[in-house]
Write a structure and sequence with these properties.
With about 475 residues, the protein is of the alpha/beta class. It has 14 helices and 21 strands.
């Protein structure tokens, strides 16, 4: 087996494995080095996303939603369930199977595309524009070289000072996805994406969930109107969301965790939880890469410093995904991976940061692309807004899921779509139409004039586009 490659990718998450596949498609001899181990010590490529992120969280969100529906929603449809019970071990087992299917899928794709996979930690040894030596430390130690190196080493959960993750009582995303008994009282620090998704999973399964958030506003990056609606719906479901709190001491005992905090009115509280999830953001992972020795520059926050093309300060060394600036999203990492492979091939890979969609997979889902109303106001851009509630959508009524709305923001003069914001059923899928429209620089009228299937949730998108011109038909 050759040990000299055109491209060596360090990290096999969505940024790395996709970069490797694209590089191989472009005709480069390509290796991907990834250290993630499954419970048997074998390779488990796919990174955070596949192993302890996007995929297992969505598996548990789906399972817990089924359970929630069986407990609360089926009766309205005339389906009576007697003796409903939860088999959590089966639910977690199914999640693990879904993860393994994805791990195996990536190994299959490597074979299919002739990407050589190395299971172990990759570290820079030496190199220059002519190539770099990478030491792989796994079951065996070996040395490989690459003319181009793509670093895609991802991110890790950020711990609170004095409250290290033990994954038993104080949980990062890893522990939050593997709780073996539904906690009676679950604390969540951070009302961000992980806090709301994992809080929703365990609430649906029976936990009393208390979310403690430092900021005074709920989901500050989300369009205010949408965030307000989402807050109302999540609180109604039973999530206790406390904004503007200041976390004090966190003390793990034998069976529970005590958290002291001061609320937004200045009152001190002590809460005791059976489990505590800390989801206060993630930090870039450059551990063990040997970045300092090789002279790979990091920025002041520890991310690998890159330019707009994902080039680092070292010739022919690139970095993509969570380990570089920008949103920590799997699809952003993938797009960067593809763009870098294409740039290595002399092509013009491009990532449009203005059209990266965001989705929070609560129920209802929250999804958006482009500018929020508060951003447009701050930037002094004149805009028109149109909203349409799912309450007035026939398909949503038939589904029994009428919460939320679609909101369009369009330029006041040109009608170009500047942002689309959705809280509602399957918002994760509906947002794609808005992304396509914005990529093609469509106007709200373009969407309003396109024929949408009836009855479908996407008609709410069309109606919101019509509402920009104050001519919604069904509301
Ligand atoms: P990672 O996926 O972190 O992969 C990095 C890989 O590199 C890992 O396998 C790691 O072991 C390996 N590695 C690191 N250093 C080395 C080394 N020196 N040598 C060899 N291997 C190394 N994003 C979404 O878009 N949608 C979602 O629904 C979503 N849900 C999420 C849910 C949770 C609970 C979490 C935690 C994250 C979620 N994310 C989601 C974010 C998403 O997981 C990340 O943005 C994405 O995984 C980043 O991809 P990456 O390739 O940059 O890094
Ligand atoms: P986050 O950035 O989404 O949210 C962190 C929250 O914690 C913020 O609201 C922040 O104000 C709060 N916070 C920070 N310090 C705090 C403190 N000391 N006390 C109380 N609150 C504090 O980060 P999160 O949820 O950890 O997720 C990390 C990233 O993973 C996300 O930003 C996202 O990029 C990615 N992700 C994406 C998902 C998706 O696309 N559906 C799902 C889950 C994660």
């Amino acid at each position: 087996m050759s040990k000299n490659f055109d491209v060596v990718v360090i990290g096999g998450g969505p940024g790395g494995y996709i970069a490797a596949i694209r590089a191989a498609q472009l005709g480069f001899s390509t290796a991907c080095v990834d250290e993630w181990k499954n419970e048997k010590g074998g390779p488990a490529p796919g990174g955070t996303c596949t192993n302890v992120g996007c995929i297992p969280s969505k598996a548990l969100l789906q399972s817990s939603e089924h359970y929630d529906h069986a407990s609360h929603a089926f009766a309205e449809h005339g389906i009576e369930v007697k003796g409903l019970s939860l088999n959590l071990a089966q639910m977690l087992g199914r999640k693990n199977t879904v993860v393994k299917q994805n791990n195996d899928g990536i190994l299959y794709l490597f074979k299919k595309n002739k990407v050589t996979f190395f299971h172990g930690r990759g570290a820079f040894v030496k190199g220059d524009a002519n190539g770099y030596e990478i030491k792989v430390s796994g079951a065996a130690e070996e040395s490989i070289t690459g003319k181009h190196i793509i670093v895609a080493t991802g991110s890790n959960a950020r711990a609170l000072p004095g409250a290290a993750f033990d994954e038993n009582l104080i949980l990062s995303n890893t522990g939050a996805l593997a709780i073996t008994e539904v906690p009676k009282k679950l604390g969540v620090i951070g009302a961000g994406v992980i806090g709301l998704e994992m809080g929703s999973v365990w609430r649906r399964l029976g936990s009393e969930v208390t979310v403690l958030e430092a900021l005074p506003t709920f989901l500050g990056a989300v369009d205010e109107q949408i965030a307000k609606e989402a807050h109302k719906l999540l609180v109604k479901q039973g999530l206790s969301i406390n904004l503007g709190v200041k976390i004090g001491d966190i003390k793990a005992g034998k069976k529970d965790v005590a958290v002291t905090y001061v609320d937004d009115k200045g009152t001190e509280h002590k809460a005791v939880f059976d489990k505590l999830i800390v989801s206060i953001g993630r930090t870039p992972n450059t551990t063990g890469l040997n970045a300092e020795t090789i002279g790979l520059k990091l920025d002041e926050r520890g991310f690998i410093a890159v330019d707009g093309d994902c080039k680092t300060n070292l010739p022919n060394v690139w970095a993509v995904g969570d380990v570089v600036r920008g949103p920590m999203l799997a699809h952003k990492a993938e797009e960067e991976g593809v763009a870098v492979a294409e740039r290595i091939a002399g092509q013009h890979g491009h990532v449009n940061f203005n059209t990266i969609p965001w989705v929070i997979y609560t129920s209802p889902e929250i999804a958006w692309v482009g500018k929020t109303e508060q951003q447009l106001k701050a930037d002094g851009i004149a805009y028109k807004a149109g909203t349409f509630p799912f309450l007035a959508n026939g398909r949503a009524r038939a589904l029994g899921d009428t919460s939320g709305m679609v909101k369009f923001l369009a330029d006041a003069k040109t009608d170009e779509i500047l942002g689309v914001h959705i809280v509602g059923p399957v918002a994760s899928e509906l947002i794609s139409e808005a992304v396509v429209a914005m990529e093609f620089r469509a106007s709200a009228e373009d969407i309003a004039r396109i024929c949408h299937a009836h009855p479908s949730l996407s008609e709410a998108t069309k109606e919101a586009a019509l509402a920009v011109d104050k001519r919604a038909l069904n509301f």
